[in-house]
Design a protein that fits this description.
15 helices; elongated
């Protein structure tokens, strides 16, 4: 049962056709007769010293297997300052091509936590100290949530790298974000967009591109003329992976209105790295355009109409047009359909009352209710409306009567069961549905 053995030897290798032995000893450990890990270089030439080191390694491994001693990587990591672990974590994020702005925010959050929670070594991090720190902060709920997520990502990275045994914040409760949003966006109505188009001048093409493609401000700024393909059967923009938030390239198909506007900026022979838009309007300019268009930046419900709200408008317009949610998710370039439908699609921009009117009726009321009054379809018109009457005479010209004739049928009572309805006009009786 977990019997640890080992032996020391000087490895040999082939050089110029002959075997050459190393000058230094290495140790090979075995557990229950099977090789454990890689050979351990001892960096000593004396066999007695090597044997003594072997005995120490075996004793240490036996204590680790018995649970008396933590594994060596954990012991070494426990003595390493958190700032050094953080430097390794940040270097790993950059090596995985994470967004530089994101990396800077994570590093800032963690350094602030280390300082204000007085965490110096990994064992200093506790759930209680984090909860106490969080309870004293006046940040928005979303900001507190980001601090917790960034810290947990760091600690999970340390656990995977065998720097800590477990994440001490794993079971800390999450901040409730619903109803705590500091900034709630809304969609623009069609009338507001038309007024914005009338006052924004050369900036209109930027706004229109954002509304019809969902491109974010930073993505619009990095859009190059080579990315815009207008002079083909179906014009589109091909956004590069290096410019998008999810680091994925994607084609964005254009409607004719946007394609026509972009032809004023991108000629048929242009295929260079020049930006499509000379500048993207800053927030101050955007607010001036909103004011000129008589669009409130913040409505009576506290919802704001900032630049990113143009992207919300795209999602809402897609839903209003009856576009399938899966297609809308692809157009919005979201990884989660819940984000498309729950966050970016605003029900205030949808025809909810009209949608309810389209629901079927089931005739659950009793036929021939008290008073034996027939149950009629609500606001039901006559089956056939009056039409102009034309009467042909035997002479050369027809005699036309410009008045309306009587309706051909009367209102048909609605019945619960499928049965024949007594004829009430010229048409034959039909089953009620």
């Amino acid at each position: 049962m977990n019997k640890v053995t080992g032996f020391v030897f000087k490895p040999s290798r082939q050089k110029d056709g002959r075997k050459v032995k190393s000058l230094f000893f290495v140790l090979r450990l075995k557990i229950d007769g099977k090789k454990f890990g890689k050979d351990i270089p001892l960096q000593v030439r004396d066999q007695q010293v090597a044997e003594k080191m072997k005995a120490e390694f075996i004793r240490e491994k036996e204590r680790e297997l018995a649970g008396i001693l933590e594994p060596k990587p954990l012991r070494e990591a426990a003595q390493k300052p958190l700032c050094d672990h953080l430097a390794d974590f940040v270097a790993d994020l950059r090596s995985r091509n994470k967004d530089e702005h994101y990396v800077d925010i994570v590093e800032t959050h963690l350094l602030k936590l280390f300082k204000e929670c007085t965490w110096r070594l990994p064992q200093d991090i506790t759930a209680d100290s984090f909860i106490a720190w969080r309870s004293k902060q006046s940040f928005a709920a979303k900001t507190k949530h980001h601090y917790q997520v960034d810290c947990c990502n760091f600690l999970n990275w340390m656990r995977r790298g065998r720097r800590i045994k477990s994440n001490p914040l794993e079971f800390v409760g999450k901040i409730e974000l619903r109803g705590k949003e500091v900034l709630t966006r809304r969609e623009f109505s069609i009338g507001e967009i038309r007024r914005l188009a009338a006052v924004s001048g050369p900036r209109w093409v930027v706004y229109l591109t954002a509304i019809n493609t969902g491109l974010r401000r930073s993505e619009l700024a990095q859009l190059q003329k080579a990315d815009v393909h207008l002079y083909q059967e179906r014009p589109f923009i091909l956004v590069r992976a290096s410019t998008t938030k999810n680091h994925k390239a994607a084609p964005l198909w254009l409607n004719q209105e946007l394609a026509d506007e972009l032809t004023k900026l991108v000629g048929p022979d242009e295929n260079g790295a020049a930006p499509v838009f000379e500048r993207i309007p800053k927030m101050k300019q955007f607010k001036r355009d909103l004011k000129a268009a008589e669009i409130p930046y913040k409505d009576e419900q506290g919802r704001v109409a900032d630049f990113h709200a143009l992207r919300h408008t795209l999602a809402t317009n897609l839903a209003a047009a009856g576009v399938h949610p899966v297609i809308a998710k692809a157009i919005m370039r979201h990884s989660d359909i819940g984000l498309t439908m729950g966050t970016y699609t605003h029900t205030s921009g949808l025809a909810l009352a009209e949608a309810v009117e389209k629901l079927p009726t089931y005739g659950t009321a009793k036929v021939n209710a008290p008073g034996n009054a027939p149950i009629l379809v609500k606001s039901s018109p006559t089956v056939s409306a009056g039409v102009p009457l034309s009467i042909s005479a035997k002479g050369d010209k027809p005699i036309e009567k410009t008045g309306e004739c009587l309706s051909l049928t009367f209102t048909v009572p609605l019945c619960l069961e499928e049965e024949m309805v007594r004829a009430a006009g010229f048409e034959p009786a039909t089953p009620s549905v």
